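Entry type: protein chain
Record version: 2
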Amino acid sequence: MLKKYFIVFLFFFSKIISAQLLVARDTITVIENNYTLKMPWANGINYSNVSNIDLNFDAVKDIVVFDKANQFATGRFRCFIKTGVAGAATYSANPDLSYNFPTINDWAIFLDYNCDGKEDIFCSTTGGIEVYKNISTPTLGISFQLEKILLYTDYDPSAGVSLANLYVSSVGVPGIIDMDNDGDLDILTFNVGGYQIEYHKNMSKELYNNCDSLVFEYATGCWGKIYENNCSVLFNQNCSFKPLQNNYTINNNQLHSGSCLTCLDTDGDGDKDLIMGDISCNVVQYLKNTGSVTNALVVDTTKLYPTAATQIKINNFPCTYNVDVDGDTKKDLIATPNAFGSQNYKSLWYYKNASTTNTVNFNFVKDNFLQDEMIEVGQNSYPVLFDYNADGKKDLLIGTFGYYSGTSLSAQLTLYKNIGTLAQPSYSLITRNLGNVGAQGLTNVMPTVGDIDGDGDTDILIGTAYGQIHWLVNTAGAGNPCNFSSFLNTPFTFTTNSGSAAPQLFDINTDGKLDLLIGTKNGKIAYYQNVGTTTSPSFTLITNNFGNINVTTNTSQFGTDAYATPFFYTDAGITKVLVGCVSGQIFQYQVPAVISNSCTLISNNVNAWLEGGQSTIYFEDVNNDGKRDAFLGNASGGLSFFSSKSPYVGLTELTNDKLMEQIILFPNPTANQMTLAINKIDFESATIIFYDVLGHQILTKKITQNFEDIDVRSLNTGIYFAKINLQVNGKAINITKKIIKN
């Protein structure tokens, strides 16, 4: 058990990884339909879980969205701080806070289980539910500690203790709420067969007269006396069966496993009603509890819910979340898909609770809550910079796996025109379907740009999910705004051997012609040499494994499909390549002078970036200062921006190995006393906090000088983590060191 805690706590304090690119998070003004987006670089949202939590310690509930992002990678937390007055659903994005959360798969919701006023994390793990305790403080910041590796329940309390894992499918989301109004959190979940709802009662109040324990008993195996299958509910069912039975068929039909449950008291009668989404449905069902707190009974369902002008109808597996969106202390309703291939750039449906009593009255407000304030191109984003209108400024082109278009995803090219200046770019949306690429019926469009036919204008090559390359021909001619009037379907006739072609035009062999370097699904890069002429390109395969680059990471977590997305560039005469991948990491390699040799790995996690799975990067100077800036895309369909001009660039340089060298705790190991040395850093304030391996805060000391002694005699023998918090130029800098006390 201690080993598990040690690993989790170490994860939170191991973010300081060598930073190679001198850029920091920044912003560029983005305008859509004459409206200036408030948080354009917030990374997008696809299908997600939505929860309230106070992120900035102002006693106002903010919102965290756990975005599942795609069908391949782990999810990513998106953090939004409530702004404005109560009653206004206004937010600002804080992407940096996402790095304070643990790595989680499948689903995650936030609820306060121990009544300390701080929402904890209930999330998916193999066979059930894992719990992280919220140990955040204004000094420590947002932080979580693993509390339960797996929740257990007593399945036969009348016969003594019979503990087994409290089963929750990784596909669905359980209902977690105080069902019996006794002050602790209970759980509703579909059984292993996926057709009956189990009610597991939390016995914390009964056993200990407090709410801070997670001790469960199986109360019933068919809450509400219902069966559910294939979007239909059967009523008045027999609840006399035994739990954990192995026969999961009804009427000879195999049953599914994958539903989400939202528990809430809609009518103010004290018992909990239910909103249920299902993996095989496109609507949710409202189940009114006509029974009681202790004996739930459902006799009818409503499929068109709520009773608003726009009812919930989402293509694939809609789920709902009862959260306070506008800060008026009344919980509203958010509906969002729980699976890939559904609404994506408009996937957060917001229903305001307009009730003036303790009932609910959900009125539809918008289908793109939060998303309407950010760049959002649906599933996946592939940024490219090029001068579209020949004005000398770099415009922004974004490819995508697809926008949801009613029944399917439409892969298109989105163009933002640079309406700013050379030194201060500003983007305005021109079209979401440049060149009418959406009419081609492609799957996943990944663009690259260059003049491949020697006519002085910029063409677009498009890679697809099936390993093919298409040509969007620019017929404008030199010095004219682009005119993409011709689409050539697979003009080069080849298909990559591993599919999912993420191309880049780059003269890798310096012969004056643009070659094709193509990232493929297996995590490698294929090299197709341009053996044609400067006016008539022709590509031939040289190798499917250029430079022995491979960005496959943890196959047990992400599988064998790594989805490499390369960006080659020249830095001081040296060719390098940045490569995104399914895990969200950015790799960096140096290309040798002899390009047939192996590339040298510089970093497998550039700048410690993890903005979202299926990462992509475009690294080019956009603000005309002679230094490259970084646009990062991800599976959620949004972008983040990191610039060389950011006021935090100098601070970003501190968050690398040099900072670890400049801040020293010695001697280590130690018996009685340590010295904290903060070299060559001018700080406004500083503290050091010692934690044990369970995350408990043991010792805190305010630091007032660059060399300060710290008495550690009060610490028991063992391993500790010392977190040093600095304020430098108004910016918080945190690093952590492992300490051994003898």
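Comment: The first helix runs from residue 2 to 12.
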